[in-house]
Amino acid sequence: MGQQAYRQVLQEYRSRILPADDPRVRRVRAVVVRIVRAAGIEPLQREINLHMQGYRFEWEANVIEDRRVNAFCLPGGKIAVYSAILQVTQNDDQLATVLSHEIAHALAHHSNERVTREESGRVNVLLNKAFDRQQESEADHIGIFLMTFAGYNPEEATRFWERMRQLSQGREIPEILSDHPSDERRIRDIERWVPKAERAKRAFDKGNIASTDSPKRLADARFEIRNSKLETRNKSQIRNSKQESGIGMNDSS
């Protein structure tokens, strides 16, 4: 269903999908690659309680020329970023904040839970129904650990959401905040999670967190790149790597 909904979005915005060689697309895809690699780290999966066995992710990321400040990740790893949010994120760490949060929704199977609650099970449920507060909080928590293990500065997450809150005061609320309310509790939670994520990353880098004999994997996951005409696919198989993060990914766009 995620792929069907994604095709619907790409068809709707087909004239505004940026080409693969656009610097904004390259920037987004480079950040996505690092986050997906981090998601394959088996000790991290245990730390943030991700259940990945039996799920298939074919990662695809596109940027849509649009004034909306928003991004989303559908089931199966289908990512869309509206270009206006790239003007709001002040650096790649803040972009990683957004993408880690959205990817976390997919990894935690939040959309599947949302569709299950709907009797219709229609594609429109994925595109139009917001996540609940508990799912948002879980995505924040997972996202902080993902961006940290991907090598980004998690302290920028606090700065980003504080910036979003300031931008929304007395002005039109950015779309990303209509689905992802930014309040004082959210920022306090993130501030509490940041040092925990940093400690976990330091322990992992020192080899103090060992993998089990039966690692959980993002098995059969692929990072798929589509051009603006939706014709050419350049696929890079993601392989698990004990030497690095547990996932190997090459962006061949």
Structural description of this entry:
The protein has helices at 2-12, 23-39, 42-47, 84-88, 92-107, 110-117, 123-128, 133-149, 155-168, 175-179, 184-205; strands spanning 58-64, 71-74, 78-82, 222-226, 233-237. By secondary structure, it is an alpha/beta fold. It has one domain (2-237). A hairpin with a 6-residue loop joins strand 4 and strand 5 (233-237). Helix 8 packs parallel to helix 11 and helix 9 (155-168) packs antiparallel against helix 11 (184-205). The longest helix has 22 residues, at 184-205. It is globular, with a radius of gyration of 17 Å.
How would you summarize what this structure contains?
The protein is an alpha/beta fold and 253 residues long.
Number of helices: 11
- List the secondary-structure elements in sequence, H or E: HHHEEEHHHHHHHHEE
- Work out the radius of gyration: 17 Å
Q: Could you tell me the mean pLDDT?
A: 76
Structural class: alpha/beta
What does the main sheet amount to? Answer: 5 strands, mixed
Compute the number of strand runs: 5
From the spread of the alpha carbons, the general shape counts as globular
Overall number of domains: 1
Strand content: 5-15%
Give the strand order, joined by hyphens, for the main sheet. Answer: 2-3-1-4-5
**Could you estimate the helical fraction of the residues in percent?**
40-55%
Give the distance, in angstroms, between the N- and C-terminal Cα atoms. Answer: 25 Å
Low-confidence stretches: 113-123, 211-253
